[in-house]
Amino acid sequence: MAELEPVLVVIPTYNERENITRIIDRLQAAVPKAHVLVVDDGSPDGTGEIADKLAAADERVHVMHRTEKAGLGAAYVAGFTWALERDYNVIVEMDADGSHAPEDLPRIIAALSDADLSIGSRYVKGGKTVNWPWRRYMLSKGANLYSRIWLGAKVNDMTAGFRAFRRAALEKLKLHNVASAGYCFQIDLTYRTLEAGFTVVESPITFTEREIGVSKMDGSIVREALWRVFKWGVRLRGEQLRSLLRIGNKS
User: Fold this and answer.
1) How far apart are CA 70 and CA 97, in angstroms?
2) What is the pLDDT of residue 1?
3) Stretches in the chain below the pLDDT threshold 70
4) How confident is the model at residue 89, as a pLDDT?
5) Element (H, E) at 223
């Protein structure tokens, strides 16, 4: 398992002062050797300052301060870039709000023994959601079905935000041209990973609706995902059609 260390967990934050300390405490209890990078988008509630205090007291905790709220995708790209500039072999995505249980992380990381991307999935055997509003659950299920149909991807939870990448996979995904800002980022990177020929596995997790703070999901995030997946799907079908025409012309 040495090749699956060292581990960096990237946690984007915006106004998570009530959650950040407890989630890092749980993470360090679950995976003691893991390092944490808090990517704070200029939280006005002081999340960044709390993270700085945690980092000053623990060499496993690092903080990146960004000056504006530029979206989940941009925060993760910044965090991934920071990780790739250092010696981390496994880079993890995890939310700060407690919806992702750090206790599930050892299983997600272990699954990388046979894969390049391990997704913490709500929609495989053993996975589940807790206290999630019916509307959010149906939106998530619909988004995943829509993505699988358009992109032809055999992944049950493409929108999942709790996942671990091998370094080699992230190095080849051309992060510099990832434009997805919201939760579409998760679909984007899943699709890029599959297109690049990497192996993707799903590990069951329990997703629990946040108890403190406000969800960042809104209509603009949903619209971005619908539009981008549609464009990728149209491009994919165009490539498939051109391939069929080339085969036909050679016959």
Assistant:
1) 18
2) 44
3) 1-2, 211-219, 248-251
4) 97
5) helix 219-250
Length of the chain: 251
* CATH code, 93: 3.90.550.10
What's the domain range around 212?
Answer: 2-250
Q: Are residues 119 and 202 in contact, defined by beta-carbon separation less than 8 angstroms?
A: yes
DSSP codes joined into one string, 61-112: EEEEE-SS---HHHHHHHHHHHHHTTT-SEEEE--SSSSB-GGGHHHHHHGG
C-alpha–C-alpha distance, residues 51 and 201, integer Å? 32
- Distance in angstroms (rounded) separating the CA atoms of residues 166 and 91: 7
- Per the structure, the count of domains in the chain is 1
pLDDT at 119: 98
pLDDT of res. 224: 78
Q: Give the other-Cβ count within 10 Å of 33's Cβ.
A: 9
Alpha carbons 26 and 191: distance in angstroms, whole number: 30
